Protein backbone atom coordinates (compact mmCIF):
# COMPACT_ATOMS: atom_id res chain seq x y z
CA UNK A 1 0.00 0.00 0.00
CA UNK A 2 1.47 3.32 -0.99
CA UNK A 3 1.78 6.11 1.52
CA UNK A 4 -0.32 8.38 -0.68
CA UNK A 5 -3.16 5.82 -0.94
CA UNK A 6 -3.25 5.48 2.84
CA UNK A 7 -3.32 9.25 3.34
CA UNK A 8 -6.06 9.72 0.73
CA UNK A 9 -8.14 7.04 2.44
CA UNK A 10 -7.71 8.59 5.88
CA UNK A 11 -8.49 12.05 4.52
CA UNK A 12 -11.66 10.81 2.78
CA UNK A 13 -12.81 8.96 5.90
CA UNK A 14 -12.27 12.07 8.03
CA UNK A 15 -14.07 14.29 5.51
CA UNK A 16 -17.07 11.93 5.45
CA UNK A 17 -17.24 11.85 9.23
CA UNK A 18 -16.95 15.63 9.54
CA UNK A 19 -19.60 16.27 6.88
CA UNK A 20 -21.98 13.79 8.50
CA UNK A 21 -21.40 15.36 11.93
CA UNK A 22 -22.13 18.85 10.54
CA UNK A 23 -25.40 17.92 8.85
CA UNK A 24 -26.49 15.75 11.77
CA UNK A 25 -25.70 18.44 14.36
CA UNK A 26 -27.54 21.08 12.38
CA UNK A 27 -30.68 18.94 12.24
CA UNK A 28 -30.45 18.02 15.93
CA UNK A 29 -30.27 21.72 16.80
CA UNK A 30 -33.40 22.28 14.68
CA UNK A 31 -35.07 19.67 16.90
CA UNK A 32 -34.21 21.78 19.96
CA UNK A 33 -31.30 19.75 21.34
CA UNK A 34 -27.54 19.91 21.30
CA UNK A 35 -25.75 16.94 19.72
CA UNK A 36 -24.67 15.75 23.18
CA UNK A 37 -28.22 16.00 24.51
CA UNK A 38 -29.54 14.08 21.51
CA UNK A 39 -26.86 11.42 22.05
CA UNK A 40 -28.06 10.88 25.63
CA UNK A 41 -31.77 10.89 24.74
CA UNK A 42 -31.18 8.47 21.85
CA UNK A 43 -29.04 6.19 24.00
CA UNK A 44 -31.55 6.08 26.86
CA UNK A 45 -34.56 5.66 24.57
CA UNK A 46 -36.41 2.40 25.26
CA UNK A 47 -34.05 1.50 28.13
CA UNK A 48 -34.86 1.44 31.84
CA UNK A 49 -31.82 3.64 32.49
CA UNK A 50 -28.04 3.50 32.62
CA UNK A 51 -25.40 4.35 35.18
CA UNK A 52 -23.12 7.28 34.37
CA UNK A 53 -20.36 4.80 33.58
CA UNK A 54 -22.60 2.87 31.15
CA UNK A 55 -23.92 6.07 29.60
CA UNK A 56 -20.38 7.36 29.09
CA UNK A 57 -19.35 4.10 27.42
CA UNK A 58 -22.34 4.08 25.05
CA UNK A 59 -22.24 7.73 23.98
CA UNK A 60 -19.71 9.93 22.24
CA UNK A 61 -19.60 12.28 25.22
CA UNK A 62 -16.46 12.70 27.30
CA UNK A 63 -16.69 12.01 31.01
CA UNK A 64 -16.03 15.66 31.86
CA UNK A 65 -18.94 16.83 29.71
CA UNK A 66 -21.45 14.11 30.60
CA UNK A 67 -22.45 15.43 34.03
CA UNK A 68 -23.16 18.93 32.72
CA UNK A 69 -25.26 17.62 29.83
CA UNK A 70 -27.25 15.39 32.18
CA UNK A 71 -27.69 18.36 34.55
CA UNK A 72 -29.20 20.46 31.75
CA UNK A 73 -31.47 17.63 30.58
CA UNK A 74 -32.59 17.10 34.17
CA UNK A 75 -33.41 20.82 34.50
CA UNK A 76 -35.59 20.49 31.37
CA UNK A 77 -37.39 17.48 32.86
CA UNK A 78 -36.04 15.12 30.19
CA UNK A 79 -34.04 12.81 32.48
CA UNK A 80 -34.04 11.93 36.15
CA UNK A 81 -31.33 10.56 38.41
CA UNK A 82 -32.44 7.65 40.56
CA UNK A 83 -30.51 5.50 43.04
CA UNK A 84 -29.07 2.34 41.54
CA UNK A 85 -30.94 -0.58 43.11
CA UNK A 86 -27.99 -2.90 42.36
CA UNK A 87 -25.25 -0.62 43.70
CA UNK A 88 -26.02 2.11 46.23
CA UNK A 89 -22.81 3.92 45.32
CA UNK A 90 -24.00 4.82 41.83
CA UNK A 91 -26.86 6.62 40.19
CA UNK A 92 -28.96 5.59 37.21
CA UNK A 93 -29.97 8.17 34.60
CA UNK A 94 -33.31 7.47 32.95
CA UNK A 95 -35.71 9.26 30.68
CA UNK A 96 -38.75 10.79 32.33
CA UNK A 97 -42.16 10.38 30.67
CA UNK A 98 -41.53 13.71 29.00
CA UNK A 99 -38.09 12.49 27.92
CA UNK A 100 -39.56 9.29 26.48
CA UNK A 101 -42.07 11.34 24.47
CA UNK A 102 -39.19 13.55 23.25
CA UNK A 103 -37.26 10.44 22.20
CA UNK A 104 -40.29 9.04 20.36
CA UNK A 105 -40.63 12.31 18.46
CA UNK A 106 -37.04 13.27 17.63
CA UNK A 107 -35.32 9.90 17.14
CA UNK A 108 -37.37 8.66 14.16
CA UNK A 109 -37.32 12.13 12.62
CA UNK A 110 -33.54 12.35 12.87
CA UNK A 111 -33.00 8.83 11.54
CA UNK A 112 -35.21 9.67 8.52
CA UNK A 113 -33.24 12.88 7.98
CA UNK A 114 -29.90 11.06 8.09
CA UNK A 115 -31.14 8.19 5.90
CA UNK A 116 -31.81 10.62 3.04
CA UNK A 117 -28.08 11.34 2.80
CA UNK A 118 -27.40 7.67 2.05
CA UNK A 119 -30.20 7.30 -0.51
CA UNK A 120 -27.87 7.47 -3.52
CA UNK A 121 -26.10 4.29 -2.39
CA UNK A 122 -27.56 0.94 -3.39
CA UNK A 123 -27.88 -2.07 -1.08
CA UNK A 124 -24.73 -3.65 -2.52
CA UNK A 125 -22.74 -0.46 -2.06
CA UNK A 126 -23.90 -0.11 1.53
CA UNK A 127 -23.05 -3.75 2.25
CA UNK A 128 -19.56 -3.30 0.78
CA UNK A 129 -19.06 -0.07 2.73
CA UNK A 130 -20.12 -1.77 5.97
CA UNK A 131 -17.80 -4.70 5.28
CA UNK A 132 -14.78 -2.50 4.57
CA UNK A 133 -15.44 -0.18 7.50
CA UNK A 134 -15.94 -3.18 9.79
CA UNK A 135 -12.58 -4.62 8.75
CA UNK A 136 -10.90 -1.25 9.30
CA UNK A 137 -12.53 -0.92 12.73
CA UNK A 138 -11.41 -4.43 13.68
CA UNK A 139 -7.83 -3.73 12.56
CA UNK A 140 -7.79 -0.51 14.58
CA UNK A 141 -9.17 -2.29 17.66
CA UNK A 142 -6.55 -5.00 17.26
CA UNK A 143 -3.87 -2.32 17.20
CA UNK A 144 -5.33 -0.74 20.35
CA UNK A 145 -5.28 -4.05 22.21
CA UNK A 146 -1.77 -5.16 21.46
CA UNK A 147 -0.06 -1.90 20.55
CA UNK A 148 1.24 -3.36 17.30
CA UNK A 149 0.39 -2.57 13.72
CA UNK A 150 -2.04 -5.10 12.21
CA UNK A 151 -0.81 -7.64 9.68
CA UNK A 152 -1.11 -6.32 6.12
CA UNK A 153 -4.20 -7.68 4.36
CA UNK A 154 -5.62 -6.91 1.00
CA UNK A 155 -9.17 -5.55 0.85
CA UNK A 156 -10.94 -6.86 -2.22
CA UNK A 157 -13.43 -4.47 -3.78
Summarize, please:
The chain is mainly alpha-helical and 157 residues long.
Would you mind describing this structure in some detail?
- The structure is a single chain.
- By secondary structure, this protein is mainly alpha-helical.
- It has one domain (3-117): Orthogonal Bundle (Arc Repressor Mutant, subunit A).
- It is built from six helices and three strands.
- The protein has helices at residues 3-30, 35-44, 52-58, 63-75, 97-116, 123-146, and strands at 50-51, 79-83, 91-95.
- It has a three-stranded antiparallel β-sheet.
- Strand 2 (79-83) and strand 3 (91-95) form a beta hairpin.
- Helix 1 packs across helix 5.
- The longest helix has 28 residues, at 3-30.
- It is globular.
- The mean pLDDT is 91.
Spans of at least 5 consecutive residues with low confidence: none
CATH class: Mainly Alpha
Major sheet? 3 strands, antiparallel
- Classify the helix fraction into a percent range: 55-70%
- What shape does the CA trace take? globular
**Strands, count:** 3
Number of helices: 6
Distance between the termini: 15 Å
Provide the residue-averaged pLDDT: 91
List SSEs in N-to-C order.
Answer: HHEHHEEHH
Strand content: 5-15%
Strand order of the biggest β-sheet: 1-3-2
In CATH, the architecture is Orthogonal Bundle
Please supply descriptive tags for the structure shown above:
157 residues, mainly alpha, Arc Repressor Mutant, subunit A, 3-stranded antiparallel sheet, 6 helices
List the SSEs and their pairings.
Blueprint: H1 3-30, H2 35-44, E1 50-51, H3 52-58, H4 63-75, E2 79-83, E3 91-95, H5 97-116, H6 123-146
Helix pairs in contact: 1-5
Amino acid sequence: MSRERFLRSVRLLAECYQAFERISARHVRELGLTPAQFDIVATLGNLPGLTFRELGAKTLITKGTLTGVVDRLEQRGVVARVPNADDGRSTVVKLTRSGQRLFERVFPEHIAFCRRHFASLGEGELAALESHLGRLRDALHEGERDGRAPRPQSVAA
